[in-house]
Amino acid sequence: MTSAPASRPRVLVTRAIFPEVIDQLAEHVDVEANPDDQLWSRDELIRRAQGKQGLLTTGGERVDAALLAACPDLRICANMAVGYNNFDVPAMTAAGVLATNAPGVLTDTTADFGFALMMAAARRVTESEHWLRAGQWDRWRYDLFAGSDIHGTTLGIIGMGRIGQGIARRGTHGFGMQVIYHNRSRLPAEDEAAVGATYVSKQALLQSADHVVLVVPYTPESHHTIGAAELALMKPTATLTNIARGGIVDDVALARALSEGRIAAAGLDVFEGEPKVHPDLLACRNVVLTPHIASASVPTRLAMARLAADNLAGFLTTGQPLTPINPEVLGKG
Ligand code: 8YV
């Protein structure tokens, strides 16, 4: 007698990702994908997630107690992002659902972009380009779009995880910057020495940095890490760069500080309520605005998608995810 083939796990890929990664996933599990990249409503997402054991999410889909209750077959959600503020991790752990993220593979690409954004803000790259394209360039001037230097200045990094350390390395070893940082916990001395960074209080950092870069995860505690009071501590010549998450900066307070010249410039890849951008920021000439693309090099986005797919397939077929966030779920049930 032949036994019926065991049914394969079913997964939902919530947004368009690389077709080759879908193909790779389909070798191990049954896949429902979203190839047209439709933005499903929450109700539609839940409806499609029902009966699935795995979800591949991209950072924008909220996985919380309500979704988990409506999708009792779910065993894993794999985020194609290092940040996972879209996951209610305690609710997932309570429901026995594994959460995974995509750390490591995007560190250098994202650190590169943080530097690019900081340099573009300091050296007024996009502001001067808009002016040139508008046909306003008719002569050289001694102070035409004169900005601030990067090399030899003080770089202040708030958040010293992998990406923060990548930015510190670039500042220390690439640009001869003096690097100071603030973090929930201080790095071991050998790690500080490797990246050439000195631990200081948040207040000291804001007061002495020429360039402040934010790389903290978004949590209730990090909400509005930079608001009006913090901006008031910064030098009027300083720049602020946010490649972490919207909500870490109070965008209205920042727009006010930029328009009043209380800081020199900002570089923002993330926004409160994105993809909407506050009109007060759009009205500022001294801010470089990019649409959440810090990790967007082709090789890195592919590596992020592959890691999310490997987490899903690994866990659902062998019980072995690569980068679990709540490993206490493993071995249960
Ligand atoms: C992602 C990010 O592009 O990894 C992160 O946390 O912010 C970005 O790299 C975004 O979250 C969509 O997945």
What is the H/E order? EHEHEHEHEHHEHEHEHEHEHEHEH
Nearest-angstrom radius of gyration?
A: 22 Å
Q: Percent of residues in helical segments?
A: 25-40%
Average per-residue pLDDT, rounded, comes to 96
For the record, give the distance between the C-alpha atoms at the N and C termini, rounded to a whole number: 30 Å
Determine the structural class based on helices, strands and strand pairing: alpha/beta
The beta-strand count equals 12
Structural summary, described in words:
- By secondary structure, the protein is α/β, with parallel strands linked by helices.
- The chain has two domains: 10-105 and 298-329, NAD(P)-binding Rossmann-like Domain (Rossmann fold, 3-Layer(aba) Sandwich), CATH 3.40.50; 107-289, Rossmann fold.
- Helix content is 36%, strand content 14%.
- It contains 13 helices and twelve strands.
- It has helices at 19-26, 42-49, 65-70, 89-94, 107-122, 125-133, 162-175, 189-195, 202-208, 228-233, 251-259, 279-282, 298-318, and strands spanning 10-13, 30-32, 54-57, 76-79, 98-100, 154-158, 178-182, 197-199, 211-214, 239-242, 265-268, 287-289.
- It has a seven-stranded parallel beta sheet, sandwiched between helices. It has a five-stranded parallel beta sheet with strand order 2-1-3-4-5.
- Strand 9 (211-214), helix 10 and strand 10 (239-242) form a beta-alpha-beta unit.
- Helix 5 packs across helix 7 (162-175).
- The mean pLDDT is 96.
- The structure holds 2-keto-D-gluconic acid.
- 2-keto-D-gluconic acid (8YV) binds at residues 58-59, 80-83, 106, 295.
- 2-keto-D-gluconic acid is lined by residues 58-59, 80-83, 106, 295.
